[in-house]
Structure formats: structure tokens, C-alpha cells
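Re: the request from the purification team.
They wanted to know what the chain is likely to look like in 3D before they choose a buffer screen. I agreed to run a prediction and write the result into the notebook, where they can find it.
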Amino acid sequence: MNRVTFYFYIGKGGWTDALIRWWTIRNFYRRSWRINSRPLEKAAISHCGVSLQKGKIWEVSACKPLGEYPIENEFDWRTYSFDITPTQWERALEILQTEKGSLYDWLGLFYTQILGLKRESKTRWFCSEFCSYFATEIGLPTNGVGDNYCISPQLFFKRLRFLWVWS
């Protein structure tokens, strides 16, 4: 059986991580979501990616196009792993090869997360949007994860966590 792992960045990071955390926590509280009644600041997510092999992560960020990169500090990440079938594995490899090199979707991030408007690029991604698409496309029963292409890293974490607990 093959395994896919979703990585969620909880490390301190730089100013962009702090800004993303502030924004997603703000929206998280405004929508009255909770994670086991624990303070969200302790588990605030600012970035996410997907992995098919230990020590490597497929991610897209403001600084780098979608690709496979080494994980710098494993202690700064929370992970959820799922067993997938050979058919899902092949689909996962196909998606990663097709989307490899895609750039960060700054405009999409601005429109969807800041202005709340619907806008989707066919050639660019932001991290949680790609992870949500990936989870849906490989056929994970995602509890509505793929229904919202403008999902934040924090909300994707919560929805995937729900799925992981029940898998």
C-alpha cells in the first residue's frame, strides 16, 4: 500500500508566515471554528504541502514554483498520512508531474482571501488550494475539502484532521 502525507507548517517562520497566521486565525474565529477547544495560536497553520516520500515535500510558495523540495525542519510541521491504492498513487504522480513548475497565485490569493471574491487561475496555485485540489483529485473522501478552491491552510488542516481521525 502506498502512502500520501499532508504537511502543515506550524513553525515560527518569517513575516509572511505571521501575516498568513493572523489572517487565517482571524477568519477562523469569525467563522467560529474550533480545534478541540485549544487556543488556535498554538497550532496556527501558515503553509501546507504534500509528500509521497519521507523527507521531501511538494509545495508552492511565494519564493518557489510547485516542485519537490527537502523538508528543512520536521519539528516545524504537523502531518496527516493516508494509505492510498495503486490507482490513486498513479493519479497522484500524474498530478504532480502535470502541475510541476506552476507559479504562486498572488492575484488569486488576494482576490479570494483578502477581498472574498471568486477567482481561480488555471495555471497558478497557492499552497492550500493545491493541496485541496490534490486530495480531491486522488479520490480521498475529503469531507468537503475540495469544494472550496479558495481554502486557507488553517481550514484545510481542520477538514483534513477530521478525515484523518475517522479514517
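For the purification team: Confidence is low (pLDDT under 50) at residues 27-42.
Please add any questions underneath this entry.
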